Amino acid sequence: MTLLMKNPDSLKKLQQEVRDAVGNKGKVDEDDLYKLDYLKAVVKEALRLYPVLPLLAPRESRDRCVLAGYEIPKKTLVFVNAWAVGRDPKCWEQPEEFEPERFMHSSVDYKGTDFELIPFGSGRRGCPGMLLGATTVELALSNLVYSFDWELPEGTKDIDTSKTAGTVIHKKIPLQLMAKVPGR
After folding, report:
1. Cα separation of 148 and 3, whole Å?
2. Can you give the pTM of this predicted structure?
3. Fewer CB near the last or first residue (10 Å), C or N of the chain?
4. How many domains, the chain?
5. Which residues pair with residue 171 across a beta bridge?
6. Which 8-state DSSP code applies to residue 53?
7. CB-count burial class (<10 Å; 0-12, 13-18, 19+) for 114
8. pLDDT reported for residue 184
9. What is the dihedral of CA 64, 68, 69, 74, to 10 degrees?
10. DSSP string of 71-107, one letter each residue
11. What is the pLDDT at residue 166?
12. 8-state DSSP, 108
């Protein structure tokens, strides 16, 4: 929601997609999610910029190997920085910008086969809750933008996007928004 509020055109585009696809049903359910391509792009882009775990679970190298010119000895504890991978200018144009459109006609997914987007890890040790987590986020976000129009509280000029340091990323100052029922 922070990224969408800082990018109102993306929020409007997402609301339009969700409201058009769902109609007057009253809520978005799991069966509607397959129709919401822009929603999926928004979630991927948010996870690219702000993976829940910036450092993935550590791994130990089984054998000596060389990666990008660096020697990694056998039995070395290796941490993968998902935060840095998602912001790598070698993989992403304008890596610091929120641009869900970059995923609209792209096969890049967060399942771990595309190593430029790994918020859930990769391979056989990827997060077992990936599908549940992604579906839950998509369902919650789609219902929030379907049911309400959003604005900053009166007197608020900007959204603070600073984060806390730690194993899991949190906003330093919680997001506060006003929800309004559309048409009222």
Report:
1. 16
2. 0.91
3. C
4. 1
5. 163
6. S
7. middle
8. 63
9. -10
10. EE-TT-EE--BHHHHHT-TTT-SSTTS--GGGGTT--
11. 77
12. -
- CA-CA distance, 18 to 151, in Å (whole number)? 18
pLDDT tens profile 67-126: 889 999 999 999 999 999 999 999 999 999 999 999 999 989 888 787 889 999 888 888
Q: What pLDDT does 24 receive?
A: 92
- Domain of 163 in residue numbering reads as 2-180
- Structure tokens given for 135: 């579906």
Token digits of residue 133: 């987590």
Neighbours of 56 (CB within 10 A): 22
pLDDT at 11 > cutoff 70: yes
Phi-psi category of residue 155: left, alpha or beta, with phi > 0 → left and psi -120 to 50 → alpha: left
